[in-house]
Design a protein that fits this description.
The complex is a heterodimer. Chain A is an alpha/beta fold. Chain A folds into 2 domains: 171 residues, P-loop containing nucleotide triphosphate hydrolases (Rossmann fold, 3-Layer(aba) Sandwich); 69 residues, no CATH class. Chain A contains 10 helices and 10 strands. In chain A, a hairpin with a 2-residue loop joins β4 and β5. Chain A is globular, with a radius of gyration of 18 Å. The radius of gyration of chain B is 21 Å and the shape is elongated. By secondary structure, chain B is mainly α. In chain B, α3 packs antiparallel against α5. The model of chain B has no long low-confidence stretch (mean pLDDT 91). Chain B is 85% helix and 0% strand. Chain B contains 8 helices and no strands. Chain B has one domain. Classes of the chains: A alpha/beta, B mainly alpha. The structure holds adenosine-5'-triphosphate and magnesium ion. The site of adenosine-5'-triphosphate has 11 residues of chain A, from β2 and α2.
């Protein structure tokens, strides 16, 4: 695992990121790297700025200062069409799935495909949609509307929608929060399987220790605007700092 | 993003109002830029026009017919006292074309379409659908907002023309209640008082009505905060602010027409 980390190039590089909302300082000089092929988890209490952090990476939020490189591009300097180009190579799984609720499951997947892969024929698109849905076990629900899906199914559907563009990086925002332990375990396995099949690099924001343990090569802990610890699950579990250890109780 | 209202002091609310006004104007500028930059989302635009038309046609038909009818019935005794019966169709036509059809149509439109857009975009915002669209490489300002604003801008004038026609019919029925009159004579009498300067400013202002409704409703929906509750607020304020804008534009239009004609 550590070899995977050391031998590889970064796909995401964040340096000295600052973000303040009104008077609330959320990020205060955060720096990190994500290496190709690894899965890194960000742990942190609610409201510590984990979502803000990964939203900055796809420029849904513009930081006050700092430098962000994604797939060797300076994200904060890109023009809109260049940014869109990069964004299609980065998948983002929203906490509640964020499925388009006026469209069926199939249309949800076809929507990004049609707009970003105009070269594919109709049957190729259809086939890609079906393979992707099969890989998250939702092929039987292809014609359902999002409102007819359960919480766990929505997460898998959201994941399928990011996968259909075959991204190189996937950012997961709390993939298992709000799910029962069985469904959460399924999602964990899915994250691992996707990493193995597609060899994506992933960043997983989570509170869920089981999830962090199962999926991560590396873990960082965000606390009061900065990463206070980095390491493998085992290393952090026995960390000298009590604040860090407290996360693992 | 809308600034948070910290308390209800008049000064703060006034400040908030002007801040939002400025922000809406900025938003409108962005909508116009996005509409003309790069390929336009025709598919979504046609779909919006269709949905909007379908949503409002029935209501506008009924209202316009009744307005024409009632206006005629109520105006007739006044004109009859003056011995000016023959002017009835003309006077109704001027009132309908210049003021009643545009404003009533726009208000109905704001109530039905404006609240719909506010709620739809609002719920897309609070459930991250807009962000999801953005990160998958589709510009939501272009796909969701530009298409809706252009659709409302074009559909209001079309619906106003339609309302003119229906109100004209209602008025014809109203005139007939007082004694039969041939449609030919009626049309002739109606057109007697009418000149085309009645139509041009009235039509121009309807484009602005449509644009204002589209921009305001999209702005409210697009910038929704505060979860599900915020969606209700967005739908509601979209209607209120659009209706207010309609009257303000109407007032300005009258003033400008006076100056230029
Ligand atoms: N758009 C915004 N405007 C103002 N404040 C914001 C905005 N987004 C986030 N914040 C604030 O930034 C802080 C961090 O929020 P964030 O959503 O990143 O937390 P989080 O670590 O993801 O928490 P959770 O685990 O509950 O999702 C919070 O205090 C939040 O109120
Ligand atoms: Mg979060």
């Amino acid at each position: 695992m550590t070899n995977k980390v050391k031998n590889n190039k970064s796909v995401i590089e964040v340096t000295d990121l600052y973000k303040t909302f009104d008077t609330k300082k959320v990020l205060e000089g955060v720096s990190m790297n994500l290496y190709r092929g690894e899965t890194m988890s960000i742990l942190g209490r609610s409201g510590q700025g984990k979502s803000v952090m990964i939203k900055c990476i796809v420029r849904l939020i513009t930081p006050d200062s700092g430098y962000i490189e994604v797939l060797e591009q300076d994200i904060l300097k890109l023009k809109d069409d260049e940014l869109n180009q990069i964004r299609t190579r980065v998948g983002y799984l929203f906490q509640e799935g964020a499925l388009y609720d006026s469209m069926t499951l199939a249309e949800n997947l076809l929507f990004p495909l049609k707009r970003n892969k105009p070269g594919l024929s109709e049957s190729e698109k259809q086939e890609l949609v079906e393979t992707t849905l099969r890989s998250v076990d939702l092929l039987d629900d292809i014609e359902k509307m999002p409102s007819e899906l359960s919480g766990g199914m929505r997460k898998r559907a959201g994941l399928a929608r990011t996968l259909v563009l075959q991204p190189e990086i996937i950012l997961y925002d709390e993939p298992t929060t709000g799910l029962d332990p069985y469904t959460a375990r399924d999602i964990n396995e899915l994250i691992v399987r996707i990493q193995e099949i597609y060899n994506v690099s992933s960043m997983v924001v989570t509170h869920d220790m089981k999830c962090a343990k199962r999926v991560s090569d590396r873990i960082v802990i965000l606390h009061n605007g900065n990463f206070i610890a980095r390491g493998t699950f085992e290393e952090l579990e026995n960390h000298e700092d009590e604040i860090v250890r407290n996360y693992f109780i | 993003m809308a600034k948070q209202n910290t308390n209800n002091r008049f000064e703060d609310r006034l400040q908030q109002f002007f801040w939002e006004l400025g922000d809406t104007v900025r938003f409108a500028g962005r909508v116009i830029r996005e509409t003309f930059r790069g390929p336009f989302e025709w598919g979504e635009f046609y779909r919006q026009c269709y949905v909007i038309g379908l949503k409002t046609l029935g209501l506008i038909s009924i209202t316009a017919f009744i307005m024409g009818l009632v206006l005629t019935i109520q105006t007739r005794p006044v004109l009859a006292d003056l011995g000016a019966d023959a002017w009835l169709p003309g006077i109704i036509m001027v009132a309908v074309l210049r003021e009643i059809a545009p404003v009533i149509t726009a208000l109905i439109f704001a109530g039905k379409v404006g609240s719909g857009i506010g709620a739809e975009l609002g719920s897309m915002r609070v459930t991250d659908q807009i962000d999801a669209m953005e990160v998958s490489g589709t510009n939501p300002m272009k796909f969701l907002v530009s298409t809706r604003v252009l659709a409302t801008t074009l559909m209001v004038p079309i619906l106003v023309f339609y309302a003119d026609g229906v109100a004209f019919l209602g008025s014809y029925v109203g005139v007939n209640l007082g004694g039969p009159i041939s449609i030919k004579l009626y049309v002739q009498q109606a057109l007697d008082l009418l000149w085309y300067f009645d139509i041009i400013p009235a039509t121009i202002k309807t484009f602005f009505f449509g644009f204002a409704i589209g921009v305001i409703s999209c702005y409210k929906g697009y910038n929704t905060t505060g979860g599900t509750q915020g969606v209700g607020v967005a739908a509601n304020t979209a209607v209120v602010a659009s209706s207010l804008a309609i009257f303000i534009i109407d007032l300005l239009a009258v003033q400008l027409t006076e100056i230029f004609i």
